[in-house]
Structures are given as C-alpha cells and as structure tokens.
Write a structure and sequence with these properties.
- The chain is α+β, with helices and mostly antiparallel strands.
- The chain has a single domain, classed as Cytochrome-c3 Hydrogenase, chain B (Orthogonal Bundle).
- A four-stranded mixed beta sheet has the order 3-2-1-17. It has a three-stranded antiparallel beta sheet with strand order 6-9-10, with helices on one face.
- A hairpin with a 4-residue loop joins strand 9 and strand 10.
- The protein is globular, with a radius of gyration of 22 Å.
Length: 511
C-alpha cells in the first residue's frame, strides 16, 4: 500500500491549525498535532507577585479570559484559605455562564456549520435551506448568533467593565456588588437570548427541549413540521445525513471538573468543591461515572519540546522549560495531560455526561462518541446554561446589599500552594500555583485544548484529537472536509495551547 504524509491547514479556528497525517489508500493511519509556538505564560509568572496572575492569565485567551480569571482567583483563595461572600460567587458564575454561552453559539454558527456549504454538498437535498441559515455573514442563524452573543456579553461588562481581559474578580470576592438596575439588565439580556434560541434555533420552549431524554424522543421532536427549518433541525438532520454521527469518536473517557461553584459552599477549607453541575469521569463503556480527583492529573513531555522528565508529573511538580530538539521523535510545544494515565476528552459533551444529562447519555450509549454528538452537546449546553442563568439572576437579586468582598489578611499570599478548576467554554481548565516568600515559584496551566489536542505521552498513547482522526477514510485528499468537521467539533482554542503546523505535502482547507 502506498503511504504518504499530508500537512493539512485548517483555518476558521482560534489561531491556525495544521494536522500532519499519514495516509494509506486514503485512510489516516497516523496523526500528529504539531505545535510550533512556545508562548510560555507559566514562565512569565515565575517570580511575580501572586496577584499578578489576575492580570496576566486572562490574556492567555481572547475568548475565555473570564474562565482564566475565575480559575486564577480560585487558586489564590485556596492558597490563602479565604472566605468568599455568596454574592461574589453568584456574580462570577453569571459572567462565566455568559462567556460560555457566547462561545458555544459563535463556535456553532460561525465556525462549525460553514463547512456544510462545502462544494461536496452542493447537490444535497438540504443545500438551499442550509445556505439560507448558515451562509457565513449572511445566513439567518449566523446573523442572529452575532447579535445575541454581543448582547449576552454585556453581563460581563456590567460587573467587569469590559470583555475580554477583565480583572474584576479578586481573592475574597469581586470589585463591586449587584444593585437593582443590574438585576433588571441581566434578566433582560438572558431573556432576549432565550427568546432568540427558542424562536430561531429550537422552535420550541427551552424547557421542552431540555426535557428530551432519549435519542428517539429527539428524533420525534426534530420530525415535527413546525421546526423543519429551525437551525437545530437543520444542523442535526444535515449532520447525520452526511455521516457525522459515525466519525470522530476518539477517547471513550470523558472528564469534567464541575461547572460553576456553589455560592453557599465555596470557601475554607476549600476541599472538595461543590458545583452546580457535578464533576466526574464518565466512561462510555458501561456508562459509569467516577468522582473527579485533581490529584490524578499528570502532564507528559516525552514527545514535546520541553526539558525531559520521566513519565507524567502532577502540575504541582511540573515544569515548562523549553528544549527544542529538531530531528528527534518530539514534535510539538504542547504537553500531554492525562488523568490517571488515561487519555480523555473534555468539553461540553463531557460536562453534560458528568452532570447526568439523560439525552446525551442515551445518544452516547446508542451511537458511541462521534462528531455530531460532540457539536450537538455544545448547543444543548448553551440551552442548559441559559436556564441556569435565570436561577443565578434570581438568587443574586435576593443577595443585594450583602457583602461582595472580604479583604484578605496581611501576608495571606506569602507562602503556600493552591489550584483552581472551572469548566471553560472548551472544557476543564486548571491553574496550579506555588508561592515562596511572596513570589510565585511555580505556575502551571492545563487548558481544555491541551487535554484534547495533546501529543503522544510517555507510553506512546495518542492524544484524543489524534485518536479521533486515525482510521478516518478521506473521500478526497485534496478536500478533507471530514477532518475539518472532526477537529472543529472540539472548538480548538489554539492560542491557549499552541499554534499547529505540519510538514510534507501541504494545502489549506477552509472558508
């Protein structure tokens, strides 16, 4: 069999992505995510004052800066064992929810569905309807998503003054509490987003969609004529008609660190964190859920351009020391995070599986992991998050006038270690900080894209993205749209980890 290597660029992602894949008769038999950019945020933070992390880490990403800020402040609060007023946690939750909703909707309608207009699908029976809804910068769903995502981000601006790169979360709370006008504004922003989702995407009430609990129930719901041209129906029916429910499986273990801290329980001793949506490790084989234990996280560098160490290290023992070794079997600036040495997937699907979403669990049990389900879960999570936002706004209204900040005691950040974990738009995000004599001695960040797009580890196990494309049969090597569907279903955030490049025969793919 003839074997060749292709370098495939995929644009329309956060950064530029290239896969290097090995083909035999059009089938992918090997894959490498090759990161060519060392950013070094962990190195930037060493020897700085601990609270500098609140300004520096939100700059890791221009899309999920709220998530990085939230994670950094949790690490400081755990380090200093600081009590946090419930009002502050409610405000933090609302802002992170708003950021995640805007990311889920923009990713779906601006980055994922444009591939449905690929010339390969020009003769598809749904082509005209898909174009009306999903044509870039013209389709009805695209224009609607642009409008509502700009508006929902105003929730962050209310409390943080700007988005992205806000710095309104502080160890011990937030810079200001809510007032009655904030509640009115937040309710309007949430309800206008819900109205668009119900009218243009679902064609049904939010509660009715969230009540669907089996694949059969979803299929009956999609078949109702009233929502034939709604965005959700077009997305699901087109995806499955071109086989996206049969490709891109990858890892069969799913990791979620838990979504949105419980306002009444976050504080000392900061042990097991309670979240509104539960954390957990979900196994596709058997449908079992195990507790999430941050102590089981390790990072490998065997195939990365970092100074070598044996096996995997927990972030508190990890290091990020560049060591470029061209010509070796190391091929990326990305590390390889593992959970108990397991390759895992993180993201909206993992989040909903851990939280007990019956519909996603039934689809997974019926069809297995796949590209359509992963992207469907992103829309499902947006709906569920908006429902949570309604409850958080109501809870915040009952806390007006209560404390929103407690000043840390003198010397609170002189010595110790702490970590923070949240569910960012793309999955589980963690920051680990160690402080000596009032200065950061170690800072490690493990992003969702690092989990999903990792290289091979010390045992030679491919990362989740690499696994998800190996075995894929390309119908046209000059137009690998199938590969684009798979990779974009993960919502790559490349500046959070690396930029990707390949070698060998190369071509660009994307709109």
């Amino acid at each position: 069999m003839a074997r060749k290597t292709l370098g495939i660029d995929l644009n329309r992602v956060e950064g530029d992505l290239e896969f290097e894949v090995d083909l035999e008769d059009g089938r992918i038999v090997g894959a490498r995510c090759i990161g060519t950019l060392f950013r070094g945020f962990e190195q930037l933070l060493v020897d700085r004052a601990p609270r500098d992390s609140l300004v520096i880490t939100p700059r890791v990403c221009g899309i999920c800066g709220t998530a990085h800020l939230y994670t950094a402040v949790l690490a400081l609060e755990r380090l200093a064992q600081l009590p946090v007023p419930p009002q502050a946690t409610l405000i933090r939750n609302l802002c992170l929810m708003a950021e995640n909703v805007q990311s889920d909707l923009r990713q779906t309608f601006l980055f994922f569905v444009p591939d449905f207009l690929n010339p390969r699908y020009g003769d598809h029976p749904m082509a005209a309807a898909v174009a009306r809804a999903f044509q870039p910068m013209k389709g009805s769903a695209v224009l609607g998503a642009l409008g509502v995502t700009r508006r929902i981000l105003q929730v962050v601006a209310i409390f943080g003054g700007q988005w992205p790169h806000s710095s309104y979360m502080l160890p011990g709370g937030v810079t200001r509490g809510a007032n009655a006008r904030d509640i009115v504004d937040c309710r309007e922003l949430v309800e206008s987003t819900v109205a668009w989702l119900e009218d243009d995407v679902l064609g049904d009430r939010l509660e009715a969609f969230l009540a669907l609990d089996t694949l059969a129930a979803l299929e009956r719901w999609l078949a109702e004529p009233v929502r034939a041209e709604r965005a959700m129906t077009l997305f699901c029916n087109f995806s499955r008609s071109v086989g996206l429910d049969r490709i891109g499986g990858g890892a069969r273990t799913f990791l979620s660190g838990g979504s949105y801290h419980d306002p009444d329980s976050w504080g000392p001793p900061c042990g097991e964190q309670k979240t509104l949506l539960a954390a957990g490790i979900f196994e596709a084989d058997g449908g079992t859920l195990a507790p999430f234990d941050p102590d089981r996280i390790t990072e490998h560098v065997r195939h990365s351009w970092f100074r070598s160490y044996a096996g995997g290290r927990h972030p508190f023992e990890g290091e990020t020391v560049p060591d470029y070794q061209p010509g070796s079997d190391r091929y990326t600036w990305a590390k390889a995070p593992r959970y108990g040495e397991q390759v895992v997937e993180t993201g909206p699907l993992a989040e909903l599986l851990a939280a007990g979403d019956a519909l996603c669990r039934d689809i997974l049990a019926t069809l297995g992991p796949n590209t359509w389900l992963r992207q469907f879960a992103r829309l499902r999570r947006a709906a569920r998050t908006l429902a949570l936002m309604r409850g958080q706004v109501d809870a915040l209204a009952r806390r007006i006038g209560e404390p929103h900040y407690r000043h840390p005691p003198e010397g609170a950040f002189e010595q110790g270690e702490g970590f923070g974990i949240v569910q960012a738009a793309r999955g589980t995000l963690g920051h680990w900080m160690q402080v000596e004599d009032g200065r950061i001695s170690r800072y490690q960040i493990v992003t969702p894209t690092a989990w999903n797009a990792s290289p091979k580890d010390s045992a030679g196990r491919h990362g989740h993205w690499e696994q998800s494309v190996i075995g894929l049969q390309l119908a046209d090597e000059a137009d690998p749209v199938e590969l684009g569907h798979i990779v974009r279903s993960h919502d790559p955030c490349l500046v959070c980890t690396v930029h990707f490049a390949g070698s060998g025969r190369r071509f660009r793919y994307g709109v």
